[in-house]
Amino acid sequence: MRVEYELTPRRRDQLYGFYFGEWWTKHRTTEEADAALGASYVALVIDEDDQVVGFARALSDGVFFAWVGDVIAAPGSRGTGVGAAIMDAIVAHPGLRSVRKWDLSCLPELDGFYERWGFADPAPSHTRRRSAAEHW
């Protein structure tokens, strides 16, 4: 496996082959995903067949804060170490090396997985969210 940090049109097409299959991405349009990914730092994991098998993105000011989202391993690659490779890649992203605080959102059952990269409960703070109801 190798890492790439640029989402070319070819890699985007490969990514979109599995990107919209997740519970949190299935209601996104291609146009929305294009806009979100264009405003994000991306990390791609590429397999020996030159296919995207893992992906994550981060939103960041490049100094104080980064939020990691859309961490996805292609369905056929799950359980093979691709998830760890994705996380290694996003936290090593050249544009994010100076970031002081990293956040991510995940299901509670994945807490242990993300602890390997230092993600833990940020007590005493907690997340508050405002969402447009029609998007959830």
TrEMBL record:
<dbReference type="InterPro" id="IPR000182">
    <property type="entry name" value="GNAT_dom"/>
</dbReference>
<dbReference type="InterPro" id="IPR016181">
    <property type="entry name" value="Acyl_CoA_acyltransferase"/>
</dbReference>
<dbReference type="Pfam" id="PF13508">
    <property type="entry name" value="Acetyltransf_7"/>
</dbReference>
<feature type="domain" description="N-acetyltransferase">
    <location>
        <begin position="2"/>
        <end position="136"/>
    </location>
</feature>
<dbReference type="GO" id="GO:0016747">
    <property type="term" value="F:acyltransferase activity, transferring groups other than amino-acyl groups"/>
</dbReference>
<protein>
    <recommendedName>
        <fullName>N-acetyltransferase domain-containing protein</fullName>
    </recommendedName>
</protein>
<dbReference type="InterPro" id="IPR053144">
    <property type="entry name" value="Acetyltransferase_Butenolide"/>
</dbReference>
